[in-house]
Design goal:
Length: 415
């Protein structure tokens, strides 16, 4: 017997350790389309509950937008369901090429290459463009998929303290002898909702002859005056050498990602990036949906403007109610609770009140930094936010944390 009791025991023990540590992840089954209002089966086997979704990456509310669904149907009818090939054999349709051109224009770059996901884009890009003579210098809080891409690359690696430009400059000086240098950052950091100091980063990169890599997955479509991303917001549109982003968040929320940037870099990815060469093409139905998303966003800033207003309303409401928030102005709004159990208790009570918002704690965030992370969407109407606010206030009162400082909450509940 290959899968012996001994092997089974090893896995069961490890799974038990995960459970004992209180970090066992359980899926919640959603029985409706992704939207502001969803129907959830949780715990599994219980009857369906209607809740307001406050934790999707559906920033622009496009995941179930009728025009996007219609365009996807049309794409399905005209180009079929699947391509049964990677891009370079027989998996490239005219619409893949059209989408790459549209993304290039939207992000203000020279060229774009699609990947099955942004995780794949990040996993493939570094090894495709760097060698062991080169150096990658990354922010210490970059996304897990970037860390994997760095692991898969033979170039040297160093880090700088989160958003600390003095420290970055030191590292650029330290590595001035390397052939190629890449500074690596997220645009908006997903746990705190803070933004990279891209303007300063571009300045430093120019001074020290380095390239800038930006993963704008939590920004593309809504950050910046016309929603082009963090580079637009920071006044360095057109100056980023390599941008990766996802189509799985604001840009329709289905799946897919890309590397967009300097022409030669994109061409190197087409020749060498392994997830591009060895994983299947993006399905035509998804490509057709994203084309419609970009069409909607290029015509009007209505949705990102609504998102901005919703975010202001939500932050103001929570602040006036006396919650401790992470400062910022992105639609990622973390409500700080510091204690892991408190974040779980409050999340559960909110669910009972019809509000779906997940608590995060170590190891997803640092110890003593437990929180409920809410994410605002243009799919929310003010009545959704008012109802959510009412529920937060009710639960906040129950735990007596309204108007309390960080120190007071920690004294009451511990870290
Ligand atoms: C979500 C996310 C990804 C992964 O995107 P997928 O397309 O779902 O693989 C990569 N980077 C960042 C910063 C993200 O937030």
């Amino acid at each position: 017997m290959a899968y012996s009791d001994k092997i089974k025991e090893i896995y069961l023990q490890e799974l038990k350790d995960i459970q004992d540590a209180g970090i066992f992840k359980q899926e919640r089954f959603i029985h409706s389309a992704q939207d502001a209002d969803i129907e959830v089966e949780f715990p599994q086997g219980s009857s369906l509950k209607k809740v307001i979704n406050m934790c999707a990456n559906n920033y622009l509310g496009l995941s179930s937008h009728p025009d996007v669904v219609k365009a996807a149907h049309e794409g399905l009818d005209s180009r079929g369901y699947g391509m049964s090939s990677v891009r370079f054999i027989c998996g490239t349709q005219d619409i893949h090429n059209e989408l790459e051109k549209k993304v290039t224009e939207f992000l203000g770059t020279e060229d774009t290459i699609l990947f099955p996901s942004c995780m794949d884009a990040n996993a493939g890009v570094f090894e495709a463009i760097l060698t062991n003579e080169d150096i990658m210098i990354s922010d210490r809080l970059v996304h897990a998929s970037i860390i994997d891409g760095i692991r898969l690359c033979s170039a040297m690696h160093d880090t700088f303290k989160h958003s600390n430009m003095k420290h970055l400059e030191k590292k650029l000086q330290l590595h001035s002898d390397k052939r190629l240098k890449v500074v690596i950052t997220d645009g908006v950091f997903s746990m705190d909702g803070d933004m990279a100091k891209l303007d300063e980063m571009v300045e430093l990169a120019e001074k020290y002859d380095a390239m800038v890599f930006l993963d704008d997955s939590h920004a593309s479509g809504f950050i910046g005056k016309t929603g082009r991303g963090t580079h637009e917001h920071c006044g360095v549109f057109g100056k980023i050498d390599i941008i990766t982003t996802t189509f799985g968040k604001a840009l329709g929320g289905a799946s897919g990602g890309c590397v967009s940037g300097r022409k030669e870099i994109v061409e190197m990815c087409r020749q060498k990036a392994r997830p591009y060469l060895f994983s299947n093409t993006m399905a035509p139905v998804i490509v057709a949906g994203i084309l419609k998303v970009l069409d909607i966003l290029s015509k009007s800033t209505e949705r990102r403007d609504k998102l901005e207003n919703n975010t202001k309303f939500w932050r103001k409401g929570l602040t006036e109610a006396g919650f401790v928030l992470k400062e910022g102005d992105t639609p990622i709004v973390p409500i700080m609770l510091f204690n892991a159990k408190l974040s779980q208790d409050i999340s559960r009570d909110l669910y009972d009140e019809g509000i779906y918002a997940i608590g995060f704690f170590f190891p997803v965030v640092a110890k003593g930094q437990a929180r409920i992370r809410t994410q605002i969407s243009a799919g929310h109407e003010i009545h959704h936010l008012e109802k959510a606010l009412e529920a937060f206030i009710k639960v906040g009162k129950k735990y007596d944390i309204l108007g309390k400082t960080k120190q007071e909450i920690i004294e009451m509940y511990g870290m």
